[in-house]
Amino acid sequence: MRSASFAVTLLLVIGFAVQAAPSEYGGNTRYRWRDGQGQLHYSDSLASEALKYGYDVVNDRGAVVRHVGRQLTADEAAQARQQAELTAQRQRAADEAARADAQMLAAYPDEAAFQAAQKMALDTVDQQIGITRGNLVTQEKALTDLLARAGELERNQQTIPSSLNQQITQQRAVVASQRALLERLQTQRQTAVQKGAQQLQHYREVKAAADRPQP
Predict the structure, then answer these.
(1) Are strands 55-58 and 30-34 parallel, antiparallel or unpaired?
(2) CA pair distance 98, 96, nearest whole angstrom
(3) Nearest CA to 134 among 185, 91, 85?
(4) Residue 8 maps to a domain
(5) Which residues of the chain carry a pLDDT beneath 50?
């Protein structure tokens, strides 16, 4: 009989202990917030005002265990989303730049290799410029010959054939095209030189950072 009575008593004690167990925040929780007039409020359940103005979760000793900010307006939520997207874009750009720097160091282990690659790219542009200049000289000579033929006919008071006029018009277009191409290539070379100086400086900075002993 004692054994049965002891068992019942033990179950009651366990049940009471379970019911009185503290919450995940270390005790019985309450909610504390201030309304629009700054008045402090407490409650055992969340009120609409608490959600509107933000609230603190406090334990049975009055200590704040968590703070929840107020609900954002539609405009504030939209701005927050935009800011989050901007932050994510910046992070993606930073990650991409870091990957590019790592690939650059892997491809060019020292400055000499990097400068050699830059020179090779510049040599390619120089070759294109040289070829275009040669073509321009050839096309300008062809135009000069056509104009000389037309001038000779005029001096002899002869009619210039329409076919010759057409050839002159076409040749002028060819010469203009070659001159424009040469100008673009020269601009491209100038830009490549300026950009190359910036890239070399960036390479030096990245290489120095990579070679710096880590703490």
Answers:
(1) antiparallel
(2) 5
(3) 185
(4) no
(5) 1-26
Q: Residue 30 in 3-state DSSP?
A: strand
Tokens 């203009």 found at = 176
CA distances from 127 to 123, 131, 193 (A): 6, 6, 15
Continuous H helices in the chain: 2-19, 48-53, 74-107, 111-155, 162-211
Last residue of a domain, one of 107, 122, 153: 107
Query: Tens of pLDDT along 183-205?
Result: 999 999 999 999 999 999 999 99
Do 78 and 125 fall into the same domain? no
Q: Which residues pair with 33 in a beta bridge?
A: 41
Angle at 69 between CA 36 and CA 50, to 5 degrees: 45
Range of the domain at 88: 73-107
